[in-house]
Write a structure and sequence with these properties.
By secondary structure, this protein is of the alpha/beta class. The protein has 9 helices and 9 strands. Strands 1-2-3-5-4-6 form a 6-stranded mixed β-sheet, sandwiched between helices. A 3-stranded antiparallel β-sheet has the order 7-9-8.
C-alpha cells in the first residue's frame, strides 16, 4: 500500500507557510531592549560576582541553545522564548549551566518547579522592541539561599531603563484611539479584566487590519481588529461605560482598604509564638505545660 501523503506533501505552499513560522519560537531575545538587558546584566554581575565576559546569550533567531557552546564557569543571562522556558531551565539544571533568565511574571511559579532555583518577583514592566509590554520577572540558579526574592532596587533600575528606552524612540509605541465601532483584543481584554461581560454575535463583525484613514500613513491596527455592526457598537458602548464604572469603583475600594489598614489594630506575636519561630530555624523549643493546659 502506498504511503499516505501528508497535507504538506500535497501542498508545497502550505509547507512553506508553516516553515516560515518555525524560527519565531526563538526570536524572543532579539526584541529585548539593549538598555534593559545591560541594566540586568550589570546588576547580576554585581550581585553574584559574574564577570560580564563570562555571560553568554544563546537565544537568537535560528539558534539552538542546546548546541550552543557553554564554557566552564559561564552564566546564561538572556531572554529565552517563554513558550519553552520550562524545557530550557531543565536543560541547564541537568547540565550544570548557571543561568539568570527573563521570565513572564504572571506565570513565574508555573512550569518547572525546582527548589534549586530562585524566583525573582519584580513588578518590572518592560516594553520589548516588537511593542509588547510584559510584566517581567527572573529565575536563576545562582542563589543558594532563597527560593523567592523581591528586589526593589533592580525593579527600579529596570523601570527607569525601560522609560529611557521608550523615550529614546527605539521602540515605537503610538497611542491610537479607535472609534467604538472598532474593537481590538486588548480593549476586549480590558473589559474582561474589569468584570464586564461583552459578547459579539456571529455576523455582527468582520476582521480588519487597518482603517482607511491609517493606510496613507502606512499604519495599521496592531494584531488586527473587528469592525462592529451598529448594534454591536451600541452594545459595546454600554459595556465600556459599565467597565469604566467598575474600574472607578475598584480604585475607590482600594483607597478605602488602604485607609482602613492604616487605622487597623495590629496584633503582636507572643513570647510563646516567638519561641515557635526559633523552632522553625532549627533551635529547640518546648511548649510549657501551663500553656498546654490553657489550650
Amino acid at each position: 500500500m502506498a504511503a499516505q501523503m501528508t497535507l504538506a506533501d500535497e501542498n508545497a505552499e502550505y509547507a512553506a507557510f508553516v516553515e516560515k513560522f518555525k524560527p519565531k519560537k526563538t526570536t524572543d531575545d532579539c526584541y529585548t531592549p539593549e538598555v534593559v538587558y545591560e541594566t540586568v546584566a550589570d546588576w547580576v554581575s554585581k550581585e553574584y560576582g559574574i564577570d560580564r565576559a563570562d555571560m553568554v546569550r544563546p537565544f537568537w533567531p535560528g539558534g539552538d541553545y542546546q548546541r550552543h557552546e557553554y564554557p566552564d564557569g559561564c552564566c546564561v543571562v538572556d531572554n529565552p522564548p517563554f513558550s519553552i522556558l520550562a524545557e530550557i531551565k531543565r536543560f541547564y539544571l541537568d547540565h550544570g549551566v548557571h543561568f539568570f533568565l527573563f521570565a513572564p511574571e504572571l506565570t513565574l511559579f508555573s512550569g518547572l518547579w525546582d527548589e534549586r532555583q530562585c524566583y525573582y518577583a519584580m513588578n518590572a514592566q518592560v516594553t520589548y522592541e516588537n511593542g509588547a509590554v510584559v510584566q517581567t520577572a527572573f529565575v536563576t540558579d545562582l542563589d543558594d539561599t532563597y527560593l523567592v526574592r523581591t528586589e526593589p532596587e533592580l525593579c527600579r533600575l529596570i523601570n527607569e531603563a525601560n522609560e529611557r528606552n521608550v523615550k529614546s524612540g527605539k521602540v515605537s509605541l503610538p497611542k491610537y484611539v479607535y472609534p467604538l465601532e472598532v474593537l481590538t483584543a486588548a480593549r476586549a481584554a480590558w473589559m474582561s479584566g474589569h468584570n464586564t461581560d461583552f459578547r459579539v454575535r456571529k455576523g455582527d463583525a468582520c476582521r480588519i487590519k487597518s482603517l482607511d484613514a491609517q493606510r496613507p500613513q502606512g499604519k495599521g491596527i496592531f494584531g488586527g481588529g473587528l469592525l462592529l455592526s451598529e448594534r454591536a457598537a451600541a452594545e459595546r458602548a454600554a459595556a465600556e461605560r459599565a467597565a469604566a464604572e467598575r474600574a472607578a469603583a475598584e480604585r475607590a475600594a482600594a483607597e478605602r482598604a488602604a485607609a482602613e489598614m492604616a487605622e487597623a489594630t495590629r496584633w503582636p506575636l507572643s513570647d510563646r509564638e516567638r519561641a515557635m519561630q526559633k523552632l522553625l530555624a532549627g533551635d529547640e523549643w518546648e511548649e510549657d505545660e501551663d500553656e498546654q493546659e490553657e489550650q
